[in-house]
Specification:
Elements (H helix, E strand, L loop, with lengths): L25 H14 L5 E2 L3 H19 L3 H12 L5 H6 L15 E4 L6 E4 L4 H11 L16 H10 L8 H12 L30 E2 L13 E3 L6 H7 L4 H7 L12 E3 L3
Helix pairs in contact: 2-3, 2-5, 3-7, 6-7, 8-9
């Protein structure tokens, strides 16, 4: 079972989570979910292996570690487990890689799924990157404060601390995460700059019985820089998305282009290589 958060379900179709707990009908939940799925039609989906998931999201995990102090191995292991290597329904349809449910301050879209309760309300993100960032922000909450007293390389302490802080109800959660980290040697990512990681070719989720379903390629915006030193802004781009695409921080991107704020315009040429 996924971690238990306060659940505040929206009163009407397509609404975000309300500050008041309410019950949504099965019909309304299905209609809402159908609308979300229509926005993500799945025409370009292809399955991901766990190795591909790691390769796709390791840069984001390292970047989040540098920004928020959460070990990259923890982020990757939780993403692998919670999302079924990116193949689970929430990851595919809602870009939700960590099973984060709605809380009173959530104003975004909602996806309903049976979990601890019938029609639990989960957050919907515009991209996988937003899910990873929200995961980092979630762990900066007060009840997780003791985790940040641990060494960044103490992944076992982090795994046990997450369970103690109430992140998951599964009593085996720490051992599951530790197993995934060690199976894929993900702890190497907790010390950036050590070089490439040789991962083992066994799927860590096989033992958990989580099924693999298709995943959308478009859910991951991290791309290898093709060698071009500039990028031309297109419709829908933001500094955040562009920075993730080229493995930079937003501050780096601003500095490279002498930007005072987040405003950019279509057609603007940005330097994207340090």
């Amino acid at each position: 079972m996924r971690k238990t958060f306060y659940l505040f379900i929206g009163l009407a179709l397509f609404n975000s989570c309300s500050a008041h707990r309410s019950i949504i009908s099965n019909r309304a939940a299905k209609q809402n979910n159908r609308h979300i799925r229509q926005q993500n039609d799945g025409s370009d989906y292809t399955p991901l292996t766990s190795l591909q998931y790691i390769d796709r999201y390791k840069a984001i995990a390292i970047q989040e570690m540098n920004a928020y102090g959460i070990p990259a191995s923890i982020t990757l292991a939780q993403g692998l487990f919670e999302s079924g290597s990116g193949n689970g329904e929430l990851a595919r349809v809602a870009n939700n890689h960590f099973g984060i449910k709605c809380t009173p301050n959530w104003t975004g879209k909602v996806y309903y799924k049976d979990d601890d309760n019938k029609n639990d309300a989960f957050r919907v993100y515009d991209s996988a990157e937003e899910s990873f960032r929200d995961h980092s922000l979630f762990l900066k909450r007060k009840n997780y404060t003791p985790l940040f007293d641990l060494d960044i390389t103490d992944y076992k302490g982090w795994c046990r601390g997450l369970k103690k802080a109430g992140y998951a109800t599964n009593p085996n959660y720490p051992s599951i995460l530790i197993g995934i980290i060690e199976k894929y040697n993900l702890q190497q990512y907790d010390t950036p700059g050590r070089g490439a990681v040789e991962t083992k070719k066994q799927d860590p989720l096989a033992a958990t019985g989580q099924a693999a379903n298709p995943v959308a390629i478009k859910d991951s915006a991290i791309q290898t820089n093709p060698g071009n030193k500039t990028y031309t802004v297109k419709q829908g781009d933001t500094l955040y998305n562009i920075s993730k695409r080229f493995g930079l921080s937003v501050d780096d991107l601003k500095s490279l282009n002498n930007l005072d704020g987040p405003a950019i315009k279509i057609g603007q040429v940005l330097v994207v290589v340090k």
